[in-house]
């Protein structure tokens, strides 16, 4: 088979899995008795108490976000500068060199 690469399990995959499982275990421990605290209850009730008239504009904003973010991301990723960075940088370096602005 020409052009195929073997699958390689990295240590960071295991770490990410363990962190995710730890977060799940912590959340399960917090809600193990099925009740929530007063703070969580007040947040839930304040959001559920919003008027029903707000639902259509909120739904439109949500759908626009879903429909617009994907194409914008594709357009930015297809720019020449993004393409040249992706083509000349090895995949491992791309992840390690990411910087948040």
Folded structure, characterized:
By secondary structure, the chain is an all-alpha fold. It has two domains: 11-49, no CATH class; 55-101. The chain is built from five helices and no strands. The chain has helices spanning 11-30, 38-48, 55-77, 80-88, 91-96. The longest helix is centred in the middle third of the chain and has 23 residues, at 55-77. The two termini are 42 Å apart. 0% of the residues are buried.
Write the SSE topology:
Layout: H1 11-30, H2 38-48, H3 55-77, H4 80-88, H5 91-96
Keywords:
flat, 5 helices, 101 residues, 2 domains, mainly alpha
Main beta-sheet annotation: none
Radius of gyration: 22 Å
**Number of helical segments with 4 or more residues:** 5
What string gives the helices and strands in order?
Answer: HHHHH
Straight-line distance between termini: 42 Å
Shape: flat
- In terms of DSSP E residues, the strand content is under 5%
Whole-number tally of structural domains: 2
Mean pLDDT: 80
The total strand number stands at 0
Helix content: 55-70%
Contiguous runs where pLDDT drops below 50 for at least 5 residues: none
Alpha-beta classification: mainly alpha
